[in-house]
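ok posting inputs for the indole-3-glycerol phosphate job
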Amino acid sequence: MTILDKILAEKEKEVAQLKATYQQGQHQVGFERRSLYDSFMHADKMGIIAEIKRASPSKGTINEAVNPAEQAKHYEENGAGVISVLTDTPFFKGTMADLKAVRKAVKLPILNKDFIIDEIQIDRAKDYGASVILLIAAALPKERLQQLFNYTRSYDLDVLFEIHNEKELAVAKEIGANIIGINNRNLKTFEVDLATTERLAKDIDTTRTLVISESGFSTKEEVERIKQSGVRGILVGETMMRSDDLKKTFDELRVPLS
Ligand SMILES: O=P(O)(O)OC[C@@H](O)[C@@H](O)c1c[nH]c2ccccc12
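and the output
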């Protein structure tokens, strides 16, 4: 059983509970659309999706005591384009309350980073103020991914469609994903390799599809390297959570796009 299988098994239980208890529309925070696609496609610097990540299965505790609202404000002040909030509790120690707090604290689009397997999680994300939903190709069959994709788009929210190999890239194209996240981390082995982005981005029309490279970024050299593949954004978790000089970290990673 892989870690992803374990996480998904837990998610099934969470969703069953949610279906029994969740009241639609309870948390609506004055929803207004904040588009990831438009802002990153037209930027002249590498877009940064900065993540609130307390812990992870591969690294254990990263910063469990973080104040998500404060952290998000610092991300915004220093040049983030989107804030990603991990809301999975059993494996990443995040909560939906974190997302709500972040939504109140910043003006940027917010990505609800979770393992989405059911429409009710999308309803909840929207109610809490998310503008972008993560769909992980490896988590579900294509038909189900298509349904969840269409459902999210019907709310006018963006989908970050996460892939890790050629087969998943084919699925992303069939579904019509306009924002593709290439995860450099192998969810089975936790190994990180930027070559994953280079290999897969080659087969994407990056003038029309927004490509985000995810995981493993800590230096300017790494960003300069993947920029050559037409990537317009990176998703950075651990480096942001551990940084004691966010201004410097952002200045380094936000390389010019030309
Ligand atoms: O902490 P890193 O190496 O910067 O990685 C961030 C992000 O890519 C990672 O948190 C992530 C990518 N895809 C995911 C899916 C679920 C949970 C987490 C993730």
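notes: The mean pLDDT is 95. Residues 51, 53, 86, 113, 162, 183, 214-217, 235-239 surround indole-3-glycerol phosphate (CB under 6 Å).
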